[in-house]
Amino acid sequence: MDTDRHDTLLPRIVAINLAVSAVVLALLMLAAGLRISPWALDNLPYYLAGALAFAIYIGVPDSWRHGRAMIEGAEYYAVLTLTMLIGAVASYPVAALTHGYHDETLNRIDQLMGFDWLAWYRVVAAHPVLQTLGVAVYRSIYVTPALLLAWYAGTGQRTEAYRLIVAFQIAAILTLGGYVFLPAVGPFSYLWRGAAPYLPESEMWQAGLIPMLRAHELGVVDLAHLRGLVSAPSFHAAAAVLFINFAWRARALRWPLIALNVAMLVATPVEGTHYLIDLIIGAVVAGVALVATEVLARVELQVARNRRAVSITGG
User: Fold this and answer.
1) Exposed, middle or buried: residue 66 (CB in 10 Å: 0-12, 13-18, 19+)?
2) Burial state string for 148-169 with b = 16 or more CB within 10 A and e = fewer than 16
3) Around Cβ 223, how many Cβ atoms within 10 Å?
4) How far is CA 128 from the centre of its chain?
5) In tens digits, what is the pLDDT along the chain, a chain of 315 residues?
């Protein structure tokens, strides 16, 4: 069990990422003419969750039977939630500062690969069971990390928890960076004509929100109603690949979480209104994030070994 709570490399990287991301977000919001209303009543759940996590972190003693797990779980959840929130909000000013759309190119690539998004959508639209299941697994992007972090907290796997968080942060940064070069309204808005027999989870937010953001017609980002604006890379696809990788190493959770995230991948083209190439690029983003995280974890391990060697030799 990895029970060392000292400030090691991965937690420091997470803290630095959050600090730098917050500053960059503030600058992006300023450049895009956007703001967040801190006193909006809809923000209350975030404040309450943050207050609860802080109260657990400073108020629960280690001597309690499950005190350590509660403290570390509160820490992990707070850090990951803040990462998700910064990433989701950042997509708004990034969208406002982009130009043009790349749907024609993305759709052409799908056609070259033989993927017919409209056919896929029609199958889902004709089967309410697929719609219900699709929405459920698409939303599970929040469930899997919650279960994994709870498992890590309960089993004392602090390094593994921070490996997941670091990988998630890197994937989020790469996704937003890729979005700058590939803004799109998505296949639903681009391909479908006429009345829609079924509105996917992501509906047509890109086609409605992106022009408003670019024209500075939207000034306040509502934290309670954040909408997915990124087409390529697909962050749902990136997250699914990350979660499958980490679930594989958590034996007690392995097969249920792998099945859940494979299902999320299958549901993402329709529910996330993504081209297939969006998912492929998202998977590549996840691969890069995993490699980078592995390098950082090895550096941390080597640093820890060096410290132990110095301690043993009395140096």
Assistant:
1) exposed
2) bbbbbbebbbbbbbbbbbbbbb
3) 17
4) 27
5) 454 444 588 999 999 999 999 999 999 999 999 999 888 888 898 999 999 999 999 999 888 888 999 999 999 999 999 999 999 999 999 999 999 999 999 999 999 999 999 999 999 999 999 999 999 999 999 999 999 999 999 999 999 999 999 999 999 999 999 999 999 999 999 999 999 999 999 888 899 999 999 999 999 999 888 888 899 999 999 999 999 999 999 999 999 999 999 999 999 999 999 999 999 999 999 999 999 999 998 887 777 676 666 666 665
Backbone angles phi, psi at 228, to 5 degrees: -70, 125
Which tokens hold the place of 143?
A: 């469930």
- Domain boundaries in the chain? 9-313
Q: Name the residue type at position 94.
A: V
